[in-house]
């Protein structure tokens, strides 16, 4: 069974631009969560989608948004990029999500904002 | 929200020795505690997990223990090997769906 895939793997953007990252979950998984990983803040939860609905949201500004498609693939968008948005963005998929359900991570997208 | 603290931040062990990483959590509603291993350039990999109705779980050289009363859980790696060198994260899930992670422990296994 193929794992979680994320595209692109690396991105370089300029301040003020916007970016869209993509995540394809493990086949059969319906929940996709997004996390931001930085050396200073560690792994922080962004949001979770299940059946095309955002089910939970972390403490990030509205510049961070996401969506999920009917095939469970998910995208996240960051508008008006800031230098502090440079990070590894990880998505994780699980069968139904929720407490107590295993989450499997993709390799991440490394975003650098200059 | 849930707050997970993880210690130590770095751990250096001799090959063949044991490694122990400890985490504490704040939300008594947390009921699922996974551990992840992250190697350089890769995403976190789920290596073992434990649920609140179990006190201990073992998988080959890896074991996790949970003390609900004290709100702490630990990862034990026995007979460490060079390939165990990585960053390890503990996490907890309270009543909502958000994984709260510890800050991570960088484990180095010396040959």
Q: How would you briefly describe this protein structure?
A:
Chain A has 114 residues and is an all-beta fold.
What does this structure look like?
The complex is a heterodimer of chains A (114) and B (111). Chain A is mainly beta and 114 residues long. Chain A contains no helices and eleven strands. The model of chain A has no long low-confidence stretch (mean pLDDT 94). With 111 residues, chain B is mainly β. Chain B is 0% helix and 55% strand. Chain B is built from no helices and eleven strands. In chain B, a hairpin with a 7-residue loop joins strand 9 and strand 10. At the A-B interface, strand 4, strand 5 and strand 10 of A face strand 4, strand 5 and strand 10 of B.
Structural class of chain A: mainly beta
Topology of chain B as a string of helices (H) and strands (E): EEEEEEEEEEE
Rg of chain A, nearest Å:
13 Å
Low-confidence stretches of chain A: none
Based on the model shown, name its key terms:
heterodimer; A: 114 residues; mainly beta; seven-stranded mixed β-sheet; four-stranded antiparallel β-sheet; globular; B: 111 residues; six-stranded mixed β-sheet; five-stranded antiparallel β-sheet; 11 strands
Please describe the topology of this protein.
The complex is a heterodimer of chains A (114) and B (111).
Chain A: E1 5-7, E2 10-13, E3 19-24, E4 31-38, E5 42-50, E6 53-57, E7 64-68, E8 74-78, E9 87-94, E10 104-105, E11 109-113
Chain B: E1 4-7, E2 10-14, E3 19-25, E4 32-38, E5 45-51, E6 56-59, E7 62-67, E8 72-77, E9 86-92, E10 100-101, E11 105-110
Parallel strand pairs in B: 2-11
Antiparallel strand pairs in B: 1-3, 3-8, 4-5, 4-9, 6-7, 7-8, 9-10, 9-11
């Amino acid at each position: 069974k193929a794992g979680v895939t994320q595209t692109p793997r690396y991105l370089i953007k300029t301040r003020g631009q916007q970016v869209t990252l993509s995540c394809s979950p493990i086949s059969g998984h319906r929940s996709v969560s997004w996390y931001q990983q930085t050396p200073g803040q560690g792994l922080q939860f962004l949001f979770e989608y299940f059946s095309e609905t955002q089910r939970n949201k972390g403490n990030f500004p509205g510049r961070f948004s996401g969506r999920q498609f009917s095939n469970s693939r998910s995208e996240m968008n960051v508008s008006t990029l800031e230098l502090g948005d440079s990070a590894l963005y990880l998505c994780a998929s699980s069968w139904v999500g929720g407490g107590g359900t295993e989450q499997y991570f993709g390799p991440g997208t490394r975003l650098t904002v200059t | 929200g849930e707050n997970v603290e993880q210690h130590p931040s770095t751990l250096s062990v001799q090959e063949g020795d044991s490694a122990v990483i400890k985490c504490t959590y704040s939300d008594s509603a947390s009921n699922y505690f996974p551990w992840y291993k992250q190697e350089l350039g890769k995403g976190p990999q789920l290596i073992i997990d434990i649920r609140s109705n179990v006190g201990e779980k073992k998988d080959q050289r890896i074991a996790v223990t949970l003390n609900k009363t004290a709100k702490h859980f630990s990862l034990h790696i026995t007979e460490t090997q060079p390939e165990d060198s990585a960053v390890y994260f503990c996490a907890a899930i309270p009543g909502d769906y958000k994984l709260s992670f510890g800050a991570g422990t960088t484990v180095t296994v010396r040959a």
